[in-house]
Amino acid sequence: MSDLAIGLPPLSAVRAFEAAVRHGSFTLAAAELGMTQAAVSYQIKLLEERLGAPLFRRRPRGVILTEIGERLGDAVTDAFDGLRGAFAAVTETAEGVLSVQALPTFAANWLAPRLGLFQCANPSLAIRLVPQVSQRQPEVDDCDVVIRRGSGQWPGLEAHWLMTNEYTPLCGPGLFRHLGRAAQPADLVAVPHFGCPKAWTGWFAAAGAPTADTVSEARIDLVVQQFEVTAALAGNGAVMAQPAFFRRELNQGVLVQPFDVMLRDGQDYWLTYPTRRRNSRKIRLFRDWVLKEAREG
């Protein structure tokens, strides 16, 4: 009978045989595979019937390979060692790089300055930071984790709250001096505005300032908050932004927060990853670290 006619035996039987060969024991093979000793014995019996020859000699205190069992055992063990090596190499590569997708301003101003701490704590894990430049739903298949804004409810994703999305007008010190110490929120109506028009309208309403039609004429939306803050730093207007992302500039005085009124839109920042990958070691390491960083500010 040809090899093609014989075909390959069931993998479960081959797996039980390989474990029994390595351990020299049905009992130890069963413990490794999470099976009963009787189940291992049955799988090997199926293999022996398939081959038409015994593979083990059963003894009261164990089993001994027959001549055919030894020949087959060497080949099967080598094959499984090759498979283990291949899977280990793939797993090591996959688990050795963590890809993180985040909105550009969050990535550049909050996450990137902290990643060195994570790298020091996990030197064997490389980080690939991918900015999410599109306003559409970010893709999760190409990245291990995605830091996104929203309500925290996404089917198929684990979501961990990081921080509130709260914003207020920021401007350069020159514009702040021009407004004067007695400035009121309404004084910003006539100032060029960078940022989302809806956010400006909401903030003016929360601050009790009039939302005249002239406000919309002065609005400039550069999409990425980082670009808008850069424009404001040049003294060209005020930007609606999250102060938490610009602590350094605020502390240095190159950026000023004129008013204490903060606005929230319910679209907070969340760490997300596919539920099916929640047991990934690299994801768990990053999750625990970034949640701790977010709690500590």
TrEMBL record:
It comes from Bosea rubneri. The keyword Transcription applies. The lineage of its organism: Bacteria, Pseudomonadati, Pseudomonadota, Alphaproteobacteria, Hyphomicrobiales. This is LysR substrate-binding domain-containing protein. The keyword DNA-binding applies. Keywords: DNA-binding, Transcription, Transcription regulation. InterPro entries: LysR-type_TF_proteobact-type, LysR_HTH_N, LysR_subst-bd, WH-like_DNA-bd_sf, WH_DNA-bd_sf. Residues 9-66 form the HTH lysR-type domain. Belongs to the LysR transcriptional regulatory family.
